[in-house]
């Protein structure tokens, strides 16, 4: 036995240890160090971190903790098992690990001047960055901006509604319903007698988009809005048939609003009709 201990502790022995990864939210982390009980009995054990001053993390000798000279950052945060020297389990428990605790820890076993070392490399995960804290004046400014934006929208909406009401005051509004999946919907407009006009236009009232135009006995779709291309049609020559009804193919939700059909004679309005398309969503 004496020869075995002599081999184990002759001079200074060093062994690289394992890596330990800990979460910064953990209650504690264990730095492992296990030796044969015959080695640890009667020995003094020092846990240290060489990059710190003082370097002492924890000391155990003669079955008690001897913490004089301990680095202040580890005060009340380290502990070993009460029977550590008898069992050879020299592992160190470190409470509330933080990112700053990351580093290389050395467990030094001293028995009569003969040293044996075990290294443990501890990695404590860096905490996520805190969410940005907006200064109070920024939050106040954003709140005011949001309120002003809402007020501006309400004023704009009411003004537009008022202008539409004045522009088409006295006009009768015809309602037409459409629903999802419907192949087409017709916006009706008929004359009892042939109108004395030479141009017909259908427009979307809110956006003033050109939906359909008929002039000089032909459809004039050069300025037609792209949303209605290949989706609208009028049967025959409406100025002869007296039927200005517009067929809208594959109606969709965004098509819903008021449409106006206007009949012109040499640039002068001779007749108008308002039709509101109401889109039902299933």
TrEMBL record:
Ligase in keyword set: no
GO biological process, one term: immune response
Subcellular localization(s) per the UniProt record: Cell membrane
Keyword Signal: yes
Keywords: Cell membrane, Disulfide bond, Glycoprotein, Immunoglobulin domain, Membrane, Receptor, Signal, Transmembrane, Transmembrane helix
Matching InterPro entries: Ig-like_dom, Ig-like_dom_sf, Ig-like_fold, Ig_sub, Ig_V-set, T-cell_Activation_Regulation
Gene Ontology cellular-component annotations: external side of plasma membrane
Membrane topology of this protein: Single-pass type I membrane protein
Bilayer-crossing regions: 134-157
Pfam families, sorted: V-set
SMART domains: IG, IGv
Domain of life: Eukaryota
Cleaved signal peptide residues: 1-17
Domain Ig-like: 27-121
Protein name: Ig-like domain-containing protein
Taxonomic source organism: Iconisemion striatum
């Amino acid at each position: 036995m004496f020869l075995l201990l002599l081999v184990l502790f002759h001079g200074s022995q060093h062994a690289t240890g394992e890596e330990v990864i800990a979460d910064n939210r953990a209650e504690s982390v264990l730095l492992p160090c296990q030796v044969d009980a015959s080695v640890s009995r009667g020995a003094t054990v020092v846990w240290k971190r060489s990059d710190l001053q003082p370097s002492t993390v924890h000391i155990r000798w003669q079955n008690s903790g001897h913490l004089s000279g301990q680095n202040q950052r580890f005060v009340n945060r380290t502990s070993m098992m009460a029977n550590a020297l008898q069992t050879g389990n020299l592992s160190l428990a470190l409470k509330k690990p933080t990112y700053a605790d990351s580093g290389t820890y050395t467990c030094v076993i001293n028995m009569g001047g003969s040293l044996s070392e075990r290294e443990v490399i501890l990695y404590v995960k860096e905490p996520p960055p805190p969410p940005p804290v907006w200064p109070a004046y920024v939050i106040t400014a954003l709140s005011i901006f949001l309120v002003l934006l809402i007020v501006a929208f309400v004023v704009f909406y009411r003004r537009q509604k008022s202008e539409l009401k004045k522009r088409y005051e006295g006009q009768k509004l015809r309602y037409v319903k459409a629903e999802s999946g419907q192949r087409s919907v017709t916006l009706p407009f008929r004359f009892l007698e042939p109108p004395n006009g030479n141009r017909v236009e259908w427009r979307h009232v809110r956006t003033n988009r050109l939906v359909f135009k008929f002039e000089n006995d032909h459809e004039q779709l050069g300025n037609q809005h792209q949303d209605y291309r290949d989706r609208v049609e009028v049967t025959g020559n409406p100025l002869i048939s007296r039927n200005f009804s517009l067929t809208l193919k594959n109606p969709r939700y965004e098509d819903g609003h008021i449409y106006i059909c206007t009949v012109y004679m040499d640039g002068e309005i001779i007749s108008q009709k308002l039709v509101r398309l109401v889109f039902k969503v299933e």
